[in-house]
Write a structure and sequence with these properties.
The protein is an alpha+beta fold. The longest helix has 23 residues, at 435-457. GO terms for molecular function: ATP binding; ATP hydrolysis activity; ATP-dependent protein folding chaperone; unfolded protein binding.
């Protein structure tokens, strides 16, 4: 496992991809990033070792770390990495680099491979002794390389190797080396109190050496391996002696396997972990003697049975291959679906996928998926911290925590992998360092996602986009609010019900295509349900004129449309607000109606007072007597309802934002004509005043507003009902007759028993 420790030699475990940009031209000399302020101008990699001395305790030589190394190790253990578990990623990446370096060099020197076996990595936890042993069959290290790379923090063998490749162009530069920092090896001290590079042997030398160090020590020990049982054919073996509080977690075989699957699933070499397994075996047992049966001399009867046997063996942990590394034309749809299910633990096939490679200032490969089902939890709709995008660097997992950096939260439902060979990460390889690079990646990923969604919308199978919209339509509406820069991509994807199509969703493109010649706007109505939208009085004249109206029935719809404002030079117009222009008004007729009912409008305004801003003749009604509309710049009735429902809403702003209310009357309705006569002939009539109050209250409800006093409105309706139905079925006559009978009884002084069946009025509707 030379790489693991060799990784320092070959590459810093952390990056899984050359992370040089992070440290400007850090040819393994400057350690920047988390400890940037303290070490910005210090060099850690020029000198190999400050000093060496012999020790009486053993036959090895004792070496001192460079100055400040103990301080740096303390930072690595306590500050550099966010999670302890990344130590395994770093050591496996080192091992991978050691194998990659050997494979690369063996092209020109086949003898380096020798009889060292296959190129592989093996990880064996030992819970009894609290150790983890990582072995690779890579290039190994010489004594000088151990001193140079493990004795100097931030000394990267990988960066040196890459530099040599660039200087010798004949060797080429096609390699899969992961890291360049040289600090990844020391991440082992996150969980280990002692690290022993138990054996490391390079094909370039016949000698094998052991390197070991304790976590809090300022020195390390190197000695030659003389025990024949520990001699390796090739490669490196690292043993971590875990701390007491980490033994039970990281020495557990299942935990190790899961970490490999999470971080190193797509490393280019096979990774085997030591796992407990079970198998069924057939055994022979003595057949028990039945009660009362005599035991015969000789061999007892045997019977065959099966039992489960536990055993330990090596298991391949990274069998899933990085599908994004292949050419998209060579990959079948079934392979994409299978990869999606394994990588994201899904059971449904994705709705769509896109596989692409980008080149230029930032180069990366990616596969993005649209899931087959939306999130079940509503909180996931607005949660930018989903783990749906997994970032890899040279196929080593880096992070899936981006907080909206790679994708905006309205596209947080998209799942996929992004893999690059060179990203500006910090030393711990957990954070993207340069914001400009992140912005470029974000822009390209968003564009590819919209291309994928657009393909679904244009598909011949309309059910695919219908399914997408049901699951993720609200996400795109959120994008209308949060991402003004992508309105042109989002708007064609929106779908709504309309007055001409109440069963199927309508796109804005279809709406514009079906518009009349004189129609200059896109009309919409925001309500709480499709049923209430269909019966709203605002629609009457528009339906009569065959003008289509979009129904916005979800809470987010109105805000989304207001943020769009226009589409293809057509303005969005709310038909529940004042000054509605339908484009074909008869100015002469409108002027005459206003003159005729001008006195009525003033009289109604006087009756209602401050409840309305004004009363005017309507051009949107045909069957309703009146309607209450909102001011042009205030909240609509739907928005007012939503804002009142906010759990943490500011009630003080409701009156300010509510805007004006305008009562519009229908001059052709009988009730309005009667009121017009009343205001001229009997302006002081209390009955006419009661009718005006009831008209206003019903207009509040039909307009989608909430009445200030529902109980008071109910009482008014009861009074009107009493006037309308009072005495209609004989109740009055019955009472009068009963009272007459009672008076006669009082005069005679006698009590007469009357059967209920005999008390009937002549006009009783239930009389036979």
């Amino acid at each position: 496992m030379a790489p693991a420790l060799s990784r320092s030699l070959y590459t810093s475990p952390l990056t899984s991809v050359p992370i040089t940009p992070l440290f400007s031209s850090l040819s393994s000399e400057k350690l920047v990033s988390p400890t940037r302020r303290s070490f910005k101008n210090r060099r850690f990699c020029d000198a190999a070792v400050a000093e060496k001395e012999t020790t009486e305790e053993g036959s090895g030589e004792k070496f001192e770390y460079q100055a400040e190394v103990s301080r740096l190790l303390d930072l690595i253990v306590h500050s550099l990495y966010s999670h302890k578990e990344v130590f395994l990623r770093e050591l496996v990446s080192n091992a991978s680099d050691a194998l990659d370096k050997l494979r690369f060099l063996s092209v020109t020197e086949p003898s380096l491979l020798g009889d060292g076996g296959d190129l592989e990595i093996r990880i064996k936890p030992d819970p009894d002794n609290g150790t983890i042993t990582i072995t690779d069959t890579g290039i190994g290290m010489t004594k000088e390389e151990l001193i140079d790379c493990l004795g100097t923090i931030a000394q990267s063998g990988t960066s040196k190797f890459l530099k040599a490749l660039k200087e010798n162009k004949d060797l080429g530069a096609d390699n899969g080396l992961i890291g360049q920092f040289g600090v990844g090896f020391f991440s082992a001290f996150l969980v280990a109190e002692k690290v022993v590079v138990g054996s490391t042997k390079t094909p370039k030398s016949d000698k094998q050496y052991v390197w070991e160090s304790v976590a809090d020590s300022s020195s390390y020990l190197i000695r030659e391996e003389t025990d024949p049982d520990n001699i390796l054919r090739r490669g490196t073996q690292i043993t971590l002696y875990l701390r007491e509080d980490d033994k039970y977690e990281f020495a557990e075989s299942t935990r190790i396997k899961n970490l490999v699957k999470n971080y190193s699933q797509f490393v280019g070499f096979p990774i085997y972990t030591w796992q407990e397994k079970s198998r069924t075996i057939e055994v022979e047992e003595d057949e028990p003697v039945k009660e009362g049966e005599e035991v015969k001399k000789g061999e007892p009867k045997k019977k065959k049975t099966t039992k489960t046997e536990k055993y330990w063996d090596w298991e391949l942990a990274n069998e899933t291959k990085p599908l994004w590394m292949r050419i998209s034309k060579e990959v079948e749809k079934g392979e994409y679906n299978e990869f999606y299910k394994k990588a994201f633990n899904e059971f449904l096939d994705p709705l769509a996928h896109t596989h692409f490679t980008t080149e230029g200032e930032v180069e990366f490969r990616s596969i993005l998926y649209i899931p087959g089902m939306g999130p079940l939890n509503n909180e996931d709709v607005t949660n930018p911290k989903t783990k749906n995008i997994r970032l890899y660097v040279k196929r080593v997992f880096i992070s899936d925590h981006f907080d909206g950096e790679l994708f905006p939260r309205y596209l947080s439902f998209v799942k996929g992998v992004v893999d690059s060979d060179d990203l500006p990460l910090n030393v711990s390889r957990e954070i993207l360092q340069e914001r400009r690079i992140v912005r470029i990646m974000r822009k390209r990923l968003i564009r590819k996602t919209f291309d994928m969604i657009q393909e679904i919308s244009e598909s011949e199978n309309k059910e695919d986009y219908k399914k997408f919209w049901e699951n993720f339509g609200r996400f795109l509406k959120l994008g209308c609010i949060e991402d003004t820069g992508n309105h042109k991509r989002i708007t064609p994807l929106l779908r709504f019900f309309s007055s001409k199509n109440e069963e199927e969703l309508t796109s804005l493109d279809d709406y514009i295509e079906n518009m009349g010649e004189n129609q200059k706007a896109i009309y919409y109505l925001a309500t709480d349900s499709l049923k209430s939208a269909k019966s709203a009085p605002f629609l009457e004249k528009l339906i009569q004129k065959d003008i289509e109206v979009l129904y916005l029935v979800e809470p987010i719809d109105e805000v989304a449309i207001q943020n769009l404002q226009t589409y293809k030079e057509k303005k969005f117009v709310d038909i529940s607000k004042e000054d509605l222009e339908l484009g074909d008004e008869d100015e002469v007729k409108d002027r005459e109606a206003k003159q005729e009912f001008n006195l009525l409008c003033d009289w109604i305004k006087q009756q209602l007072g401050d409840k309305v801003a004004k009363v005017q003749v309507s051009n949107r009604l045909s069957s309703s007597p009146c309607v209450l509309v909102s001011g042009k710049f205030g909240w609509s009735a739907n928005m007012e309802r939503l804002m009142k429902a906010q759990a943490l809403g500011d009630t003080s702003s409701l009156e300010f934002m509510r805007g004006r209310r305008i009562l519009e009357i229908n001059p052709d309705h009988p009730i309005i004509k009667d009121l017009n006569a009343a205001c001229k002939n009997a302006p002081e009539s209390t009955e006419a005043t009661r009718v005006v109050d009831l008209l206003y209250d019903t207009a509040i409800i039909s307009g989608g507003f909430t009445p200030d006093s529902p109980a008071e409105l109910g009482n008014k309706i009861y009074e009107m009902m009493a006037v309308a139905v009072g005495g209609r079925w004989g109740r009055v006559e019955e009472e009068e007759e009963s009272s007459t009978v009672n008076e006669g009884d009082d005069k005679s002084g006698e009590t007469e028993v009357v059967e209920p069946s005999e008390v009937r009025a002549e006009s009783d509707p239930w009389q036979d």
